[in-house]
Write a structure and sequence with these properties.
The protein is mainly α and 706 residues long. Among the domains are: 2-72 and 178-231, no CATH class; 413-530; 536-685. It is built from 25 helices and 13 strands. The longest helix is centred in the N-terminal third of the chain and has 51 residues, at 202-252. The radius of gyration is 31 Å and the shape is globular. Mean pLDDT is 85; it is low at 675-706. It comes from Dyadobacter sandarakinus. One of its GO terms (molecular function) is metallopeptidase activity. The chain crosses the membrane at residues 7-38, 44-69.
Length: 706
């Protein structure tokens, strides 16, 4: 892989030099032609034509060398540097590991807020020629989730990178990527230059048009080189990760690294849940007192809820747990991934027969001198860039976990449903037949929401996802030559036949799910009759289906206005901005009418908070220009996009509330239909939330879990 990467580097150098020589030759040729033209006919037009000819070459040359004048600096504002006098035990561990691995001590050691550990270094032109000392970064979110020996294994992995001579290859690739990126995407200043140049006169405008054509050709070539350069380096990077894992296993044994890799995905999910919670508290000017106590609280709550066992205060996470909802049979080798999957790393580590050494299962915090000070300092760093409407007040760990648990209760469904509705909604039943379905023969509730019923949901969702990915491959959106499905290797050309086969299975599952949902309705209709209630179940179904139809229309309007306003995040010529705003106004007519009709409904007013209501009022009260005096109006744009986001959130909130109202009523019917002594068996902790699923479930083959 190193040979491939070095070969790609030489390819880039060769292509770049070839482009430079061509640009220089073009500039000289255009200069000679311009000189000849002026010499033949000395006039104002001849001089302008000569200048235009010279511009063709010069603009192409400037495009190729403009990256030299671009300054790059590493942002360290989110990091805190520590020294030996600050954390002597940590530095002692680092010194021992450096000696054992046989590498250099880090240039500097930094602490960050997140769940991560990494090696980084200042990379520039001189770093390609001279040795560069590497820095070590340790995230406190990671420290918060591992034992001493697991931290030792993670740092040994990072020092494995310190010892890799192939890191030098990475430095070259990184710098060459910056050069290519600059020429492909970082062109604002260059575009401003050629716009001013083209506006001078018609001769120069023609020269600019020709130069733009040449530049596009250069960019096309560079995109091809970029692909070759990065595909080869990504392959090398994955092998470097395996190599660093093996170094760590030789230091501590493979067990500590395996257990930490599995738990860190879980810990990162918990950390993200805390950050998402505070993102929703910005308008209330609330921030965390200590984000790490709260991360630990979420980890503890979810682990106990999901039945994970603990060792030395840390939940033990298995690969089966992380992949419990993953039913995909599609395997695509991701050639653009810089890291191998956790599953592949665990498999490689499991093949190493190395005993655990110096096992210390105390919390990793035990080697830190002043953990509370560090936790508060990094928490303050994490929230330092947030702009609050008023001075922020802190939420303690106790207040946070109480609020978090209450939110879980509010946004989860009763465990009676066994996760059946976590990723799906009730299937549509014909409203004409709704009240006439016979409740005389009903299935047992254990079958309706049993393991097989839930598995059908997972199978359907993953089949649908696999079909979408295969369709994208068939249509050429993914550059994939081969893939595995259910252990069989296929070529991209076989997608159509496989999709037809999978669609048949998906349709069969859909029929089974719809039939089961009909049986669910029958079951609860019978229970409603047994409890002498009538009509409420049908009313809730009708109410839910009615909103489901309305929600589809609302989401179409949301998509239209979002797409119409997307140009505000792009570099756009001024005359085009005016046209885009005019197109946005026509879409806004429908959007504003929909917003007004929605917020005027009584049930919507009940769930609309004060800030959301004020934003809706501001947006509806005026017609904003968004752009005047040759610049965007940030306040008006903020009102627009806040309104768009609030509209989207409100649609989802109404949908969830109607679904939960129906399911809560069904759960109550089930409880009312059993003797009082059995009620406790039905009131169990709710199943895992979609939000937590999205945060902790690992991706497979570049797919996001449902």
């Amino acid at each position: 892989m190193t040979v491939k990467s070095v070969g790609a580097i030489f390819l880039f150098i060769f292509v770049y030099l070839l482009l430079m020589c061509s640009a220089i030759a073009l500039t000289i040729g255009c200069g000679i032609l311009g000189y000849t033209l002026v010499a033949y006919s000395f006039s104002g037009y001849a001089i302008l034509a000569a200048l235009a000819l010279l511009s063709i070459g010069l603009l192409s040359l400037v495009f190729l060398i403009k990256f030299i004048f671009k300054k790059h600096s590493t942002d360290l504002t989110h990091l805190i540097e520590i020294r030996k006098e600050h954390e002597p035990q940590l530095f002692q561990m680092v010194e021992e590991l450096v000696k054992e691995v046989g590498t250099d001590f880090p240039k500097k050691i930094y602490l960050s807020a997140d769940v991560n550990a990494a090696v980084f270094y200042d990379s520039g032109f001189w770093s390609m020629l001279l040795p560069v000392r590497k820095n070590l970064q340790i995230g406190l979110g990671l420290v918060n989730a591992v034992s001493v020996i697991e931290l030792r294994a993670i740092l040994a992995h990072e020092f494995g990178h310190f010892s890799q001579k192939t890191m030098k290859v990475g430095s070259y690739v990184y710098n060459m990527n910056r050069v290519i990126y600059n020429m492909l995407y970082d062109n604002d200043a260059y575009e401003t230059l050629i716009e001013k140049w083209a506006s001078s006169n018609n001769f120069l405008a023609i020269a600019v048009l020709i130069s733009v054509r040449i530049v596009r050709g250069i960019q096309w070539i560079l995109k091809k080189v970029y692909r070759i350069l990065n595909v080869s380096y990504m392959g090398l990077s994955r092998e470097m990760e395996f190599h660093a894992d093996e170094i760590a296993a030789n230091v501590t044994g493979p067990g500590p690294l395996k257990s930490s890799l599995l738990r860190l995905e879980f810990a990162a999910g918990a950390y993200q849940i805390v950050l998402n919670y505070y993102q929703g508290k910005v308008d209330e000017s609330k921030k965390a007192a200590n984000v790490y106590l709260q991360q630990a609280s979420v980890m503890d709550f979810v682990a106990r809820r999901d039945g994970l066992h603990f060792e030395h205060g840390l939940p033990q996470v298995s690969m089966d747990y992380l992949q419990r909802h993953n039913r995909s049979k599609l395997v695509i080798a991701d050639q653009w991934a810089s890291h191998p999957t956790t599953e592949d790393r665990i498999l490689r580590l499991s093949q190493l027969n190395i005993p655990v050494q110096n096992e210390d299962k105390r919390s990793a915090w035990s080697i830190f001198k002043d953990k509370e000070h560090l936790q508060h300092q990094l928490t303050a760093n994490e929230f330092s860039l947030v702009q609050y409407p008023s001075p922020a007040t802190e939420i303690t760990a106790e207040e946070f976990i109480r609020d978090y648990v209450e939110m879980q209760r509010e946004f989860q469904f009763d465990n009676l449903f066994n996760g059946y509705y976590d990723n799906k909604s009730p299937e549509r039943i014909s409203l004409q037949e709704l009240g006439r379905i016979s409740p005389e023969k009903t299935k047992n509730i254990d079958l309706l929401f049993g393991k097989n019923a839930v598995q059908n949901i997972d199978d359907y969702l993953w089949l649908d996802r696999d079909i979408q990915v295969l369709s994208a491959i068939m249509e050429g959106h993914y550059a994939v030559k081969t893939f595995d499905y259910d252990g069989i290797k296929y070529t991209a050309g076989a997608c159509a036949g496989l999709i037809a086969e999978l669609e048949l299975k998906r349709n069969q599952l859909k029929e089974q799910i719809t039939e089961n949902d009909t049986d669910i309705y029958q079951y609860f209709l019978q229970k409603e009759n047994e409890t002498a209630r009538s009509g409420e179940l049908n009313h809730l179904y009708v109410s839910y289906f009615d909103w489901d139809d309305a929600a589809d229309e609302h989401f179409q309007i949301y998509t239209s206005v979002t797409n119409a306003a997307a140009f505000m995040f792009e570099t756009t010529p001024e005359n085009q901005i005016a046209e885009n705003i005019q197109a946005l106004r026509s879409v806004e007519l429908t959007f504003k009418a929909s917003v007004k009709a929605l917020i005027d409904k009584a049930f919507v007013k009940e769930i609309t908070d004060a800030d959301m209501g004020r934003n809706f009022e501001l947006y509806l009260a005026d017609q904003y220009s968004y752009f005047h005096d040759r610049q965007y109006n940030a306040d008006e744009i903020n009102i627009l996009f806040t309104c768009i986001n609030n509209y989207h959130n409100l649609i989802g909130k109404i949908h969830f509330n109607r679904k939960k109202k129906l399911l809560d009523y069904q759960a109550q019917l089930a409880k009312d239909a059993v003797p009082l002594k059995d009620h406790q068996d039905l009131i169990i902790q709710p199943s895992i939330t979609n939000a937590f699923n999205a945060a902790i479930l690992p991706s497979l083959n570049s797919q996001t879990s449902q």
